[in-house]
Design a protein that fits this description.
Structural class: mainly beta
Radius of gyration: 27 Å
Low-confidence stretches: 1-39, 295-310, 547-591
Number of helices: 0
Shape: globular
CATH topology of one domain: Immunoglobulin-like
Number of strands: 34
Distance between the termini: 53 Å
CATH class of one domain: Mainly Beta
CATH architecture of one domain: Sandwich
Largest sheet: 14 strands, mixed
Helix content: under 10%
Strand content: 25-35%
């Protein structure tokens, strides 16, 4: 087993979605609500909640909650007691670590200040650390915000508005500042009356405030500086924060960006309605398709492993990678990958399985992937079926939890270590509210993780698991068609808390391919694994673009619905056509 401190085990991003207790930053840990991926914080072996909070007197050690009465691993053998690790880590005690001035605190609502653990999170105090993996500070109540690493009051006249542009009644939020009743809202937005500025925020009025803090009342949308109606069919989607929802019943938003339109949903060919539901057929790839085209259980909506009968299957990534014909829209959906053959990695077909917390465990998790190449790089969509997702502690230990890893090179000329071979790339991804993704450069039993640019990935999760879409540049010179590269993939699973005797959250890892090295000395030391020796990745061929008859795996037949002009709806559904236009129903044809 690889040492606990290194990223020698190939890394995977933290799937950390942390739940904050209801009463403030120290509140009890919890579970994400219905419909989302189940993720826990605060319990022994799981990630710490906001403000270093762990349940039942536990201690937050390296982002993981250690149980009350257990040893604080890596902190000198101190015993965890009421949040403190022996003689360090608690309020007023030295910070834990060889050098207290750069050490850490383990008790809830504490933060290291000049070598001593001081209280944090209250008014006038320093902000506490956010949940594991977060870079945003937090404060202990809804009437405070973290500003310049200091907890300051919000919501009262003269102070900043609280999150959600809220002020204490009957105040108004204008330009992110709370105004008192009958106070002028700037120079042209009227006066504050009963919580609203009289000259802005209503239909056709200017938006209140300006720039990123522009707001409208009653769930209206601020567009081009004016408040406008939203949410009806054909209108722009309302803000995601709108209490009435983004779109009216029977419609759904076409995009998660600022350009979304409320469109009809739920019937065959339409986008899926909220919750990835359809009134006809099933939801796959964000569209409602006929039930006969769904294989097994339908995916839930915006992402799928393309379980449509026309999409290509039978991928063999260690034999050949198909050429991607793009263009790719990086939106977390797999609709550009239908002609890329899928393959599956699970703990039954893996070339090697490494276990960390037990022996002979059962792991039902599986990953379905579509991976392709072109002149710009590697394109992939990977869907992981995992009903309980456990977060890795942080980007630096992104491998230590649920996640997926992709490893590839731009040629077959490799020497062992990705930190030496500049023509290799090791990608790690793990889901959370804010997903973590990183590149790793490995040096034997350790590695350095660097955050992956958000322009290279888009992912999400639901109650069945998580997914990620990737658009990755070639490391080094781009290879040509029919040339060969090195490739591998790994699936990490974390089904429960870490043992109290180590810091491992991850339970096991499934490795797609693992060859033996040609020399007696490996770059991994005593362990041989793909993350520390790129020579044991498989060798695969980059296929040139192929074309075949429509309806084959290389050119699948795809049903395309031709949408008539706005206002023209299928008369079979009881809606009239536009005067002067033919009344034929929408047409479908094979393209």
């Amino acid at each position: 087993m690889i040492g606990a401190g290194g990223s020698a085990t190939d890394a995977n991003p933290a799937d950390a979605t942390i739940v904050q207790g209801a009463g403030g930053i120290q509140g009890t840990g919890g579970i994400i609500g219905t419909g989302g991926t189940t993720v826990i914080c605060g319990e022994p072996g799981y990630a710490c909640c906001s403000g270093n909070a762990c349940n039942s007197g536990g201690c937050c050690v390296s982002g993981i909650c250690m149980t009350q009465g257990g040893a604080c691993v890596g902190l000198g053998g101190g015993v965890c007691n009421a949040g403190a690790c022996g003689t360090c880590g608690g309020p007023g005690l030295p910070c834990c670590g060889a050098d207290p001035s750069t050490g850490s605190c383990t008790a809830p609502n504490t933060k290291c200040n000049s070598g001593t653990c001081a209280r944090c999170g209250d008014l006038g105090q320093a902000c506490c650390a956010g949940p594991t993996g977060s870079t945003t500070g937090v404060c202990g109540g809804p009437e405070m915000i973290c500003s310049n690493n200091l907890c300051v009051a919000c919501g009262v006249p003269g102070s900043a508005c609280c999150p959600g542009s809220l002020c204490a009644n009957p105040g108004c939020c204008y330009n992110n500042t709370c105004l008192g009743e009958n106070t002028a809202c700037g120079t042209s937005a009227g006066t504050c009356q009963a919580g609203r500025c009289s000259g802005c925020g209503a239909v056709s009025q200017p938006c209140c405030s300006s720039g990123s803090s522009s707001t409208c009342y009653d769930g209206l949308l601020c567009k081009s500086g004016a408040c406008t109606s939203c949410g009806n069919a054909g209108e722009a989607c309302c803000p995601a924060s709108s209490s009435a929802g983004q779109c009216k019943d029977g419609t759904a938003c076409t995009s998660t960006g600022s350009d979304g339109i409320c469109a009809r949903c739920g019937t065959l060919g339409d986008i899926c309605c909220a919750g990835s539901t359809c009134s006809e057929g099933c939801c796959s790839g964000g569209r409602c398709i006929s039930s006969g085209s769904c294989v097994g259980s339908p995916d839930g909506g915006t992402a799928s492993d393309a379980p449509i009968s026309q999409c290509a299957t039978g991928g063999a990534p260690c034999s050949a990678l198909a050429r991607f014909t793009g263009p790719q829209i990086l939106d977390g959906k797999d609709d550009e990958f239908c002609n890329i053959p899928s393959f599956e990695l699970n703990f039954g077909n893996a070339a090697n399985v490494i276990e960390y917390n037990t022996t002979g465990g059962s792991y039902p998790e599986r990953a379905v992937a579509r991976v392709a190449w072109d002149d710009t790089g590697i394109h992939a969509f990977i869907r992981v079926y995992d009903t309980t997702v456990t977060p890795a502690p942080a980007l630096s230990t992104i491998w230590n939890g649920d996640g997926i890893e992709l490893l590839f090179s731009s040629s077959t000329s490799v020497t062992g270590l990705t930190s030496v071979d500049t023509n290799t790339m090791h990608i790690l991804y793990s889901p959370s509210t804010t997903p973590l993704a990183a590149t790793s450069k490995d040096t034997a039993t350790s590695g350095t993780e660097t955050a992956l640019a958000t322009s290279m990935y888009s992912g999400g999760s639901d109650s069945t698991g998580y997914w990620v879409e990737l658009n990755l540049p070639w490391p080094g010179a781009a290879p040509a068609a029919s040339s060969q590269i090195k490739f591998d993939m790994q699936l990490n699973v974390a089904d429960g808390p870490a043992k109290t005797t180590d810091l491992y959250v991850r339970d096991a890892q499934a490795i797609l391919y693992q060859a033996t090295t040609t020399t007696t000395t490996t770059s991994c030391g005593s362990t041989i694994a793909p993350f520390c020796d790129d020579r044991i990745w498989c060798t695969t061929t980059l296929q040139p673009q192929r074309r075949g008859p429509v309806g084959t795996a290389t050119r699948p037949a795809i049903a395309v619905r031709i949408i008539e002009p706005p206002g023209y709806l299928d008369p079979r559904r009881g809606f009239p056509g536009i005067a002067g236009l033919p009344t034929a129903s929408p047409r479908e044809r094979q393209c």
